């Protein structure tokens, strides 16, 4: 039996499974899925988990069951390509014939002193639960500093302000306008929403240091009861420790067939891979489809395509609390109730197909 090992049951890992199971896996291939969490987590909803507006159970989806699939629960600590092994924290090792690494990302602190120590995070389920606990135990009038006004910072600030109007929320962003990756019209729409909901936007900010309950913006101290960091991501540290070419965010450079340039049995998936688009769940899923095609061709003794057409992304949708939203669909900016309904619909469909 050949062993296909998948590290990470996130959006990318789950899509690999749904492409192969139940009926598309050759009889002589078994799959080992490894994750430190015993279920698939809906990371795109961590902002709501942290804000306390959905329950933990709503972001969990069971892994599939299949006679050729083994799910291994545990923490991956390193990859040993020369021995074709994955090392686990409990000293166990897992051998592979083909390996797909989809371990996601972690916060990037841009060398800001104290940021890793004194800020909360929404990049993993464990960290989002801690953030939930810190935010939801705050008394009225407490100050929450959110650093970074990209998609996740905006979703967290809006969700929290809608459910806890008694909090004083400050959203710090480097740019002249929040959501700098989106068209001006969208940024302005979202800024107006924040003005109406008493969220203070602090543009042109530069967080130079963080201490316990204090953010330094351009070296000026600002007291905060809780600080959440949403100001950047980098590849999972297991991947960053690998001895192969990386981009500025620690993501691994890959070939058009999605494997490492010097090892055709190690595929890099999702937020761990250096790709020409911003990391997203959609991108991880698009890549998963192409990786499965490469594997299936090889299992059939055929030559995989030398390259694939560009991965088609449908757009981006963000929420502003439970009723309003914003986003880009097929290059068109959409705002308001329709954008929010579309986002909820996509989540519902995802759970329906994977639950
Ligand atoms: C608040 C927020 C909102 C977002 N909204 C959107 C959106 O609307 N649309 C969109 O497309 N994208 C969105 N994203 C981005 C999206 O969530 C990621 O790009 C996507 O999850 C990447 O998928 P992945 O498979 O690479 O990794 P992940 O989905 O992060 O999965 C990684 C898996 O690896 C496991 N893991 C990590 N380290 C280890 C280890 N050492 N040992 C064992 N297991 C490990 C984790 O438990 C996890 O299951 C959002 C992200 C956030 C934080």
Automatic annotation (TrEMBL):
Q: Where is the FAD/NAD(P)-binding domain?
A: 3-282
Biological process according to GO = aerobic electron transport chain
Q: Which Pfam families match?
A: Pyr_redox_2 (PF07992)
Look up the record and name the cofactor or cofactors this protein needs: FAD
Q: Give the keywords, sorted.
A: FAD, Flavoprotein, Oxidoreductase
Show the InterPro entries listed in the entry: FAD/NAD-bd_sf, FAD/NAD-binding_dom, NADH-Q_oxidoreductase
Molecular function (GO) terms for this protein are: NAD(P)H dehydrogenase (quinone) activity
Q: Which SUPFAM superfamilies match?
A: FAD/NAD(P)-binding domain
Family, according to the entry, reads as follows:
Belongs to the NADH dehydrogenase family.
The protein, known as: FAD-dependent oxidoreductase
């Amino acid at each position: 039996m050949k062993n296909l090992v998948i590290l990470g049951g996130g959006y990318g890992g789950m899509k690999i499974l749904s492409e192969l199971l139940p009926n598309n896996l050759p009889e002589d291939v078994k799959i080992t899925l490894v994750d430190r969490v015993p279920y698939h987590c809906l990371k795109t909803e961590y902002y709501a988990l942290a804000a306390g507006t959905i329950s933990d159970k709503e972001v969990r989806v069971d892994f599939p069951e299949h006679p050729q699939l083994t799910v291994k629960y545990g923490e991956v600590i390193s990859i040993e390509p020369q021995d074709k092994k994955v090392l686990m924290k409990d000293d166990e090792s897992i051998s592979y014939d083909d390996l797909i690494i989809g371990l996601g990302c972690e916060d990037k602190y841009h060398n800001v002193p104290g940021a890793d120590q004194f800020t909360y995070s929404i990049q993993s389920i464990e960290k989002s639960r801690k953030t939930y606990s810190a935010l939801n135990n705050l008394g009225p009038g407490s100050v929450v500093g959110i650093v970074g006004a990209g998609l996740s910072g905006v979703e967290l600030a809006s969700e929290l302000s809608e459910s806890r109007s008694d909090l004083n929320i400050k959203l710090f962003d480097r740019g002249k306008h929040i959501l700098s990756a989106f068209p001006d019209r969208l940024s302005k729409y979202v800024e107006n929403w924040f003005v109406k909901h008493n969220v203070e936007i602090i543009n042109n900010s530069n967080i130079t240091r963080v201490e316990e309950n204090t953010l330094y913006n351009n070296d000026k101290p600002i007291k905060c009861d809780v600080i959440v960091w949403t100001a950047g991501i980098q590849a999972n540290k297991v991947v960053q420790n690998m001895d192969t070419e990386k981009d500025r965010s620690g993501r691994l450079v890959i070939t058009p067939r999605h494997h490492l340039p010097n090892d055709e049995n190690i595929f890099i998936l999702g937020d761990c891979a250096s790709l020409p688009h911003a990391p997203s769940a959609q991108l991880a899923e698009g890549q998963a489809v192409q990786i499965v095609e490469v594997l299936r061709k090889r299992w059939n003794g055929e030559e995989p395509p030398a390259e694939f057409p560009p991965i088609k992304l449908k757009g981006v949708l963000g929420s502003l609390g439970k009723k309003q939203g914003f986003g880009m669909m097929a290059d068109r900016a959409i705002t308001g109730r329709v954008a929010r309904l579309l986002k909820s619909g996509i989540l519902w469909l995802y759970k329906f197909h994977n639950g």
